[in-house]
Each structure stands twice: as C-alpha cells, then as structure tokens.
Design a protein that fits this description.
This protein is mainly alpha-helical. It has five helices and no strands. Helix content is 78%, strand content 0%. The longest helix is centred in the N-terminal third of the chain and has 39 residues.
C-alpha cells in the first residue's frame, strides 16, 4: 500500500515540476512581451501585467508542495533534537495529523473562494484553482507521512539505541 502511495506522490511531484517549468516560462515570456510592447510600441498590456502575480502565486504554492514532499519545509526542531526517538515520533504524528486537518479545512474553504473569484472575475477567476490543488496535495502529503510514520514506528530497542552515550 505504501508503494502505491509513493507512486502517486512521485507522479504528483512530476506533474508539479512540469507545471512549475510551464509557469516560469510563461512568466518570463509575459514580462519580456510586456516590456517590449510598452517601451517599443507604447502599448502596455494590462491583462498580461495582471497575470504575473497569479503565476508567481502558482510558482510559490507548487514549490511549497514540493518542499513538503521532500520534508524541506520550515520545522522547529530545536527542542526535539534533545528528545528521545519515541517523543520525536509522537511529535511527528501530531504535526502530520494537525497539518492534514488544517489543509482539509482550508481545502473545503478554498472551493467557496474559487466560486467567488469566478463570479467576480469571470474566466480569470479560474487561476485561483491553485488553492484547492495545493491544499489537497498538502493534505495528501501530510496523510502519507502520517501513514509512513505508523509503518516505521520506533520500537523500544531502537529508542534505547538512539540515546547518546554519556
């Protein structure tokens, strides 16, 4: 089962990387086009100018999702560094459970947000679909880490061996 989840996670990461490359390429093209059209032809394009922050938002959230996959997100481990393996394991369970819960709540709220954006901005409101995508990917990754943590739960022997020699 964990192999299947890992395959889904890897496929999701490949999709996210592809979208990141596409978004970054589009952002560069939009910026170059906007600079050239404004300076050479004196025709600024406000629609393209407004698309830039949306692309940056997509890049940031997709990058955050990939950071979560690789466990490279910001963690505060100063206190946990001096705790036993069992306490670190329970802290990881609590963090993953809390993260999945928060991402699930935000996922539900993001659907209403997308609906409001589409009502207000029409087709441009579809760009806010990054929010449900990000929250669902983050919830999936927290739940996968939680499941992986339960499958690799430390035993009493491992906790004894993890203690540093004095």
């Amino acid at each position: 089962m964990i192999k299947g989840i890992k395959r889904v996670d890897d496929a999701l990461a490949l999709f996210e990387k592809s979208v990141i490359v596409f978004c970054f390429s589009m952002l560069v093209c939009f910026i170059v086009f906007n600079i050239l059209s404004r300076n050479l032809f004196h025709l600024p394009s406000h629609k393209i100018f407004e698309a830039g922050p949306n692309l940056v938002l997509w890049l940031a959230l997709l990058g955050a999702s990939l950071a979560l996959k690789r466990q490279r997100h910001i963690r505060l481990e100063l206190v946990l560094r001096y705790c036993s393996g069992r306490i670190r394991w329970w802290a990881a369970v609590a963090v993953n459970l809390f993260g999945a819960l928060v991402m699930g709540v935000l996922l539900v709220a993001s659907f209403e947000f997308v609906n409001n954006e589409m009502v207000m901005f029409g087709g441009w409101g579809r760009l806010s679909m990054i929010f449900p995508f990000f929250f669902s990917a983050a919830a999936f990754r927290y739940l996968a880490a939680l499941l992986n943590g339960f499958l690799t739960r430390p035993t009493a022997d491992a906790t004894q061996r993890a203690k540093p020699a004095r």
